[in-house]
TrEMBL record:
It comes from the Bacteria. PANTHER family: RESPONSE REGULATORY DOMAIN-CONTAINING PROTEIN, STRESS RESPONSE REGULATOR PROTEIN 1. It comes from Paenibacillus auburnensis. The modification 4-aspartylphosphate is found at residue 58. The keyword Phosphoprotein applies. InterPro entries: Bact_response_regulator, CheY-like_superfamily, Sig_transdc_resp-reg_receiver. This is Polar-differentiation response regulator DivK. Pfam families: Response_reg. The gene is divK. SUPFAM superfamilies: CheY-like.
Length: 126
């Protein structure tokens, strides 16, 4: 059984995006365990149980959106230290500024360059 150094939680409701991220991690970040959740509610449950080293959170989720999920994570003693990366198709400057002001560690716009994405992940886990 493979031993992973760090854990990343990816919260995304789109199956194709989830499959793409799985492929990116398998090929470019093989030492990281990728946990997956299809809703913010499931992701928050996993975050509390597993305490991942990094969370990648889609902004436009059904139910709780990414901003609401981040607020929930930052309000808890056990999860507030986890860096959270916003990932979204919302690419306006105002979207990026709002995410930074809200407390996201980084903001990635879809579609993204794989190398820039993996660099961001590596930097936040360093």
């Amino acid at each position: 059984m493979k031993e992973y150094k760090r854990t990343v939680l990816y919260v995304e409701d789109n199956e194709l995006n989830m499959a793409l991220m799985h492929h990116i991690f398998k090929k470019n970040l093989p030492s990281l365990l990728l946990l997956k959740a299809e809703t913010a509610e499931i992701g928050l449950d996993i975050a509390v149980r597993r305490l991942p080293d990094l969370i990648i959170l889609d902004i436009g989720l059904p139910g709780l959106n990414g901003y609401e999920a981040l607020e929930w994570l930052k309000a808890r003693e056990d999860t507030r230290h986890i860096p959270v990366v916003a990932i979204s198709a919302f690419a306006l400057r105002s979207d990026i500024e709002r995410a930074r002001e809200t407390g996201f560690a980084a903001y990635i716009t879809k579609p993204f360059q794989v190398s820039a994405f993996t660099d961001t992940v590596k930097t936040l886990l360093a």
